[in-house]
Amino acid sequence: MIAEEERVAHQKKTLVNPSDDPEQNLLNNQYDVIRVSGFRKAYTKLFGKPFLAVERISFGLDYGECFALLGVNGAGKSTTFKSLTGDVLPTTGQITISGFDIYQNFKDARKLIGYCP
């Protein structure tokens, strides 16, 4: 495990202010096994305005960490977890598990996570 101050500084550098180059972001990622960067999800309707479920969240998780999302109804918790398991595609953003982009290599990424809804 790394010191908390070092981890916070790393996340500010790579998650809050990521590079425009996704490959460089992965190279900068030396600690996070699960990484969500700039995730945004808007559900669209055939007629009417899109519904924004999640607006640009970013976080990283180290190996062995267990986490939960807390928030009011409609805050985007389920949508975020569905994106981690490949059930929902993001409107924008990137999600990787051990370096595997879950939308390009989901079969490899899925073997590395456990999820209990």
Give a verbal description of the structure.
It is a single chain. By secondary structure, this protein is an alpha+beta fold. The chain has a single domain, classed as 3-Layer(aba) Sandwich (Rossmann fold). The chain is 28% helix and 25% strand. It contains four helices and four strands. It has helices at 4-16, 22-28, 77-84, 106-110; strands at residues 34-43, 51-61, 92-97, 100-101. Strands 2-1-3-4 form a four-stranded antiparallel sheet, sandwiched between helices. A hairpin with a 2-residue loop joins strand 3 and strand 4. The chain starts with a helix and ends in a 7-residue tail after the last helix. The mean pLDDT is 80.
Brief account:
This protein has a single domain (4-110), classed as 3-Layer(aba) Sandwich (Rossmann fold). Helices cover 28% and strands 25% of the residues. It is built from four helices and four strands; from the N terminus they run ααββαββα.
